[in-house]
């Protein structure tokens, strides 16, 4: 391994479009107040679906960030990604111009990409023939387009990529961006995840895999991570974006610093297409690697934003992984699943959850896990039930795990 001096990396901007708020400020207020963003699906008639609930983004206006022509040529997932990226740049006060454009990059992950466009164009193909398909179909649906369009609309000419690692995609994007800055390939990175997969085919597919909650009579209480009555995850949509910067670059322009990013752990279970390896061994290794990368000990961790999907397999496995990685200290760490409020954004989840983790550090306040009424006996850690908690947060982790066995942990700490 090449020996090089690692650049320090800090978070200077955040952007979020979520089921509980369309800016990072609204999102944070929703989190600490325990807001519920889950309701009956409005985007399409879900009456024949086994799952009829989701965490949809409400009152989103892409024209606040994009002109009508550009917005029309984007799938909803790209609209979310570009819009949240513009929010984050404004929040960071980072202006991209001819002098710095080649030093600013973009990595935005998505698990599914433009599935709504694909579904719509398939209908056109079947009903009207192949010559009526849109010439924009392919560039609208491919998963890398949120990253590409963000560069086009911001002028960022540095490293550009897209992680497509299912529900770990957003976290992989942030981790990979962290590495780019550490290694000197960029001075700043726009990074995170976005998803807009609340569509008829997508919901049907996840339901067929028996992954989704069918608590259709009670949407507000359907997503209940770590609860013994959980029956599957609830889909969400939106985007979460961080601006990561090399420390000296941020200081030179007087940027506000939310937190420092110090660690990135990434592993694979190499076990099963959809199920985590028993005992959470792969997830535990991701946590351990993130701690090692950040020169952190388990005793330094204050808070973990859990993957916490509300599925029978994940919650028990993740709890076991945290215990294995942190030892006895696992019982002293505050843990919460913000998916209880937003639903599961798939490839976008790592983005909004990294935003939540960074804001927990910046505000010394931990979001709750709502709907945790009857804890699963094997889930016996401190999941901050029901109500947010004012508490000093010096070091925080964000976990993301995806189909295919992808495990990612990001580590942040207070900047000092």
From TrEMBL:
GO terms for biological process: fatty acid biosynthetic process. Gene3D superfamilies: 3.40.47.10. SMART domains: PKS_KS. InterPro entries: 3-oxoacyl-ACP_synth-2 (IPR017568), Beta-ketoacyl_synthase (IPR000794), Ketoacyl_synth_C (IPR014031), Ketoacyl_synth_N (IPR014030), PKS_Beta-ketoAc_synthase_dom (IPR020841), Thiolase-like (IPR016039). Pathway: Lipid metabolism; fatty acid biosynthesis. It holds the Pfam family Ketoacyl-synt_C. GO terms for cellular component: cytosol. Residues 6-414 form the Ketosynthase family 3 (KS3) domain. Its EC number is 2.3.1.179. The keyword Cytoplasm does not apply. Keywords: Acyltransferase, Fatty acid biosynthesis, Fatty acid metabolism, Lipid biosynthesis, Lipid metabolism, Transferase. The active site is at 167 (for beta-ketoacyl synthase activity). It catalyses: (9Z)-hexadecenoyl-[ACP] + malonyl-[ACP] + H(+) = 3-oxo-(11Z)-octadecenoyl-[ACP] + holo-[ACP] + CO2; a fatty acyl-[ACP] + malonyl-[ACP] + H(+) = a 3-oxoacyl-[ACP] + holo-[ACP] + CO2. One of its GO terms (molecular function) is 3-oxoacyl-[acyl-carrier-protein] synthase activity. It comes from the Bacteria. Belongs to the thiolase-like superfamily. Beta-ketoacyl-ACP synthases family. PANTHER family: 3-OXOACYL-[ACYL-CARRIER-PROTEIN] SYNTHASE, MITOCHONDRIAL, POLYKETIDE SYNTHASE-RELATED. Involved in the type II fatty acid elongation cycle. Catalyzes the elongation of a wide range of acyl-ACP by the addition of two carbons from malonyl-ACP to an acyl acceptor. Can efficiently catalyze the conversion of palmitoleoyl-ACP (cis-hexadec-9-enoyl-ACP) to cis-vaccenoyl-ACP (cis-octadec-11-enoyl-ACP), an essential step in the thermal regulation of fatty acid composition. This is 3-oxoacyl-[acyl-carrier-protein] synthase 2. It comes from Richelia sinica FACHB-800. The lineage of its organism: Bacteria, Bacillati, Cyanobacteriota, Cyanophyceae, Nostocales.
């Amino acid at each position: 391994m090449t020996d090089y001096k690692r650049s320090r990396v800090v978070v200077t901007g955040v952007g979020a479009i979520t089921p509980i708020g369309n800016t990072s400020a609204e999102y944070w207020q929703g989190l600490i107040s325990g807001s519920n963003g889950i309701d009956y699906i409005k985007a399409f008639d879900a009456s024949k679906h086994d799952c009829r609930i989701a965490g949809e983004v409400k009152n989103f206006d892409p024209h606040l960030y994009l002109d009508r022509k550009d917005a029309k040529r984007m799938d909803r997932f790209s609209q979310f990604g570009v819009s949240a990226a513009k929010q984050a740049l404004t929040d960071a006060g980072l202006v991209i111009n001819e002098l710095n454009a080649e030093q600013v990059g973009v990595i935005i992950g998505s698990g599914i990409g433009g599935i709504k466009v694909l579904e719509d164009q398939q209908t056109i193909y079947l009903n009207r023939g192949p010559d009526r398909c849109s010439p924009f179909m392919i560039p609208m649906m491919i998963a890398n387009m949120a990253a590409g369009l963000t560069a086009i609309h911001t002028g960022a000419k540095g490293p550009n990529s897209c992680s497509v690692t299912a529900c770990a995609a957003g976290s992989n994007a942030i981790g990979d961006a962290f590495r780019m800055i550490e290694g000197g390939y960029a001075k700043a990175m726009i990074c995170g995840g976005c998803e807009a997969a609340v569509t008829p085919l997508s919901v049907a597919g996840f339901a067929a895999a028996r992954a989704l909650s069918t608590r259709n009579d009670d949407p507000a209480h359907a997503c209940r991570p770590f609860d013994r009555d959980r029956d599957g995850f609830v889909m969400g949509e939106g985007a979460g974006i961080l601006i990561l910067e090399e420390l000296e670059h941020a200081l030179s322009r007087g940027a506000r610093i939310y937190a420092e990013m110090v660690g990135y752990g990434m592993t694979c279970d190499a076990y099963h297409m959809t199920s985590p390896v028993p005992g959470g061994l792969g997830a535990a290794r991701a946590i351990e690697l993130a701690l090692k990368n950040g020169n952190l000990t388990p005793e330094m961790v204050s808070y973990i934003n859990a993957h916490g999907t509300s599925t029978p397999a994940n919650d028990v496995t993740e709890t076991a992984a945290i215990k294995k990685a942190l030892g006895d200290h696992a019982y002293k760490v505050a843990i919460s699943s913000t998916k209880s409020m937003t639903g599961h954004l798939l490839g976008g989840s790592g983005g909004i959850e990294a935003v939540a983790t960074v804001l927990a550090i910046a505000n010394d306040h931990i979001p709750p896990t709502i709907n945790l009424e009857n804890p699963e006996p094997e889930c016996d850690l401190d999941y901050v039930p029901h109500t947010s908690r004012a508490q000093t947060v010096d070091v925080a982790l964000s976990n993301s795990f995806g189909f295919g066995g992808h495990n990612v942990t990001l580590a942040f700490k207070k900047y000092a």
